[in-house]
Amino acid sequence: MSINVDLPPELESELSTEASQLNLPLSEYILRVLSMRGSIANPPKNGAELVAYWQSEGVINSRPDITDSQAYSRQLRHDSQTRDRL
After folding, report:
1. Structural domain count of the chain
2. HEC-encoded secondary structure of the chain
3. In a domain, 28, yes or no
4. Where is this region: Disordered (predicted)?
């Protein structure tokens, strides 16, 4: 389905900026924003609901290359603390 919408210039500029920060075309970014409206209106209320939401969005288990999350976190922390300062 195709719908034409006249956006106020300020909103169009804001959405364009956000889309470019994510390297997405404006139309795709707007689709993502609209598809998320249900989760924004009804946010998770406890840890179990949050985990279920993350699973439904594909966040959990999205990095099968990380087999030991605690070791990976320690390595990230170490790398960030010992990186060269500018």
Report:
1. 1
2. CCCCCCCCHHHHHHHHHHHHHCCCCHHHHHHHHHHCHHHHHCCCCCHHHHHHHHHHCCCCCCCCCCCCHHHHHHHHHHHHHHCCCC
3. yes
4. 63-86
